[in-house]
User: Fold this.
Amino acid sequence: MNGRGAPTIAFAGGGTAGHLYPALAVAEALRGEIPDIRIVFFTTSRPIDDAVLGGRGSCRASPSAEAQKERIISLPQPVSSWRKAPWTWPRFVRDWRASMRLCRAGLRAYRPIMVIGSGGYASMPPLFAARELGIPTALLNPDAIPGRANRHLGPQADLIFAQWEDTRRYFPRHRGFCETGCPVRPEFRMADHQRGLARFGLDSARRTLVVTGASQGARTINDAVLAMIREIVGMAEWQVLHLTGKADAHRVLTAYRGALGPDAVAGHSAPEDVLSVPHLAQKGARDGEPVPGPAVVRVVPYTEHMADALAAADLVIARAGASTLAELTALGRASILMPYPFGRDQHQLVNARVLVRAGAARLVRDRIHTAANVAALRTVLLPLLNDRFALERMSAAARRSGTADAARDIAERVLECACGGAHVAPGASPNAVRRSAARAGGTPAPQTGEMRRAPAGSLALGAAAIPERD
Assistant:
C-alpha cells in the first residue's frame, strides 16, 4: 500500500507493445475504480518499454507518494529470453538471478495486492517472486495459443484472462479461467472516424486504406503494398495511410515518390522530420498534424495515435497480433490479415482464423517473397476495394466480435480476487472497491528476509541489499 492506504497492483511483462498495451488498459481501468491506486510495472530494458510507458508518465522510481499516485512506476529487469545455443546460457542464468533479486526487492518495497503477467519472458521473474511471497497472481492471455511463459505460469496463477474461448483447451481444468476479451485503451472506445482523418491530414471525400505492420513495421507487407500502389490509388476514391515502422520509413517513402511522383506522397522519413514534400510541408509539422494538399499516400514511421489511425480506416492491412485484433474489433474495422510468418507455433495465424471465422477479416498468408505476396494480396484486396457492401458486412462482424468492456471486467475481477474472495459487485462504487482492496492490502506479503530502505528517489536493488535466497 502507499502511505494513504490505497492498494498497489503490479504488472509484469514488456519487450513489445503487444505485451504492454493490454496491461496499460487494465491499469487505467483499475485507476478508474480506485483513483489513487499505485501501479508498478516490471518491464524489460528494451527501448519500446520506455517509449510506451513514457507516454503514460512512468518513472524509474519516485521519491514521493504524491508523485507515485500520478505515475506508473517502471522497474526494468535485466532478464533475457532463453535460447538454445549453449554459449548463451551463462548470461541467461546471470540475468535471471539479477531479475529475481530485483523482483523480490520491488515486491517487498511496494507490497502489491496482486501481480498480473502480460506474457513474454519478462513476466516470469516477477510472477515466480510473487508466488514465493504469497502474493496472488493473474495472467493476461490475448493470443489464442498461449506463449511459453503463460503456459508455464498458467497452472499456478489464480486467474487467467483470455481473449477467446479457443484458449481454454490449453488450461482445461483451471478454475480461474475467464473469457473476457482483450483489454484496449480508452482512446479506442472513444475514437472517431472524422477526427482520425483530420489527425493525419486525410481527405474526407476518399475512403482510406490503412497499412500497418504493428509498432515495429513489417517489411514484407510494406513491399507487397508498394508493388501494388498504382493499382490501389488508380481507384479514384481511395487513399493510403501507411505506417511503415521506423526502420523502413525512408525506403518506403522514396519508393512511393518514385512510383507516384512527389505531389502524390506526403510523409516522414524519421519521427523527428517535418513532412518531406516541400510544398505540402508545414513548418514544424510533426506526426499526425493535419497537412493540406493533394497527396493520396501518407507515410508515417510510427504513431502514438493508433486509435485515430485505425478510426480513419475503411479497410486495414495488418499483422494478426492479439492486441491489433482487439483494436480492430473495438473499432469495428474490416481487415486483411497477413500473420507473422516466422513464429514457431504460428500463433498469429491462429489468431487471424478467429476473425476470419467470424466474417470480420480475410486471410492472406505471408509467403515472405514479394511476388508471391503480391499475387495473393491482389486476389483479396482489389475485389474488396470495389465492394462497399462486403466492407460494411466485415465491419459489422468485427464490431460484434469485440468486447468493449474487457479492461473494466478484468479490473473488477482482479480486485475481487485480491480482496481475498470478498465479493465486489460489478459496477460497485469506487469507495466500496477501495475499502475492500485496502483491507486486502493492509497485510504485507510474507517477508522472510530484510531489505534496507532505498535512498530517496531510487530503489536499492543491489546484491548487497537483498539476500540471494530467502
